[in-house]
Amino acid sequence: MSPRPAARPGGRSARVQQSVHTAVRELEAENGRDTLTVPLVAARAGVTPSTIYRRWGDLQELLADVAVERLRPEAGPADLGSVREDLEHWAVDFLEEMSSPAGRSYIRDALAGDPDGGNAGRCSAYAVEQIEIIRDRAAKRGEVAPALDVVVDHVVAPMMYRILFRPGLLDAQYARDLVVTVFYRFLPLP
């Protein structure tokens, strides 16, 4: 995103953001991404092109903003009763969503329109929030959970590398194996 100040979270600003994001998703689904233009999105959203340029700067930054919102998890991680099962399930879901054609497209859009790293930070925060929910539940159950940075560095980071640079080498077992490795390498044996 550009260094413009963030818009207020409610009111007209939120309605404009929602209508513009909806317009992007609808037009992309109807006509494909290559046909998108700021005037076309503005017309569908019921705003002026200058509103989009003022808020997002250009089409790439708008697509990046839409992508970041699409990468936000819709629900919290499943509670399967143990920290290891919860992390394995979350890692498999994360890998499946991010490595899908739509997920990879959203990742590319989010990073392409991210000159200051803000989108990457927001996407990282989504993963961190999910991991922290799992860690908090584990603590309430009296379980020892791997440190947040260990999960990010040894589960999320390798998956993202493969999603972006080696997508043919991904499956659910890969995600599970990363979690198992974290438990064997970074947690004390019972």
Please explain how this structure is put together.
This protein is mainly alpha-helical and 190 residues long. The protein folds into two domains: 11-57, Arc Repressor Mutant, subunit A; 71-186, Tetracycline Repressor, domain 2 (Orthogonal Bundle). Helices cover 72% and strands 0% of the residues. The chain has helices spanning 11-31, 38-45, 49-56, 59-71, 83-99, 101-112, 118-141, 148-165, 172-186. The protein is elongated, with a radius of gyration of 19 Å. The N and C termini lie far apart (46 Å).
Distance between the termini: 46 Å
Query: Which structural category fits the helices and strands?
Result: mainly alpha
Report the uncertain regions: 1-8
The helix count comes to 9
CATH top level label of the largest domain: Mainly Alpha
The CATH superfamily of the largest domain is known as Tetracycline Repressor, domain 2
Number of domains: 2
Q: Helical percent range? A: over 70%
- Computed over alpha carbons, the radius of gyration is 19 Å
H/E topology pattern: HHHHHHHHH
Please tell me what the overall shape is: elongated
CATH topology of the largest domain: Tetracycline Repressor, domain 2
Number of strands: 0
Question: Can you give the mean pLDDT?
Answer: 89
Strand content: under 5%
Q: Let me know the largest β-sheet.
A: none
CATH architecture of the largest domain: Orthogonal Bundle
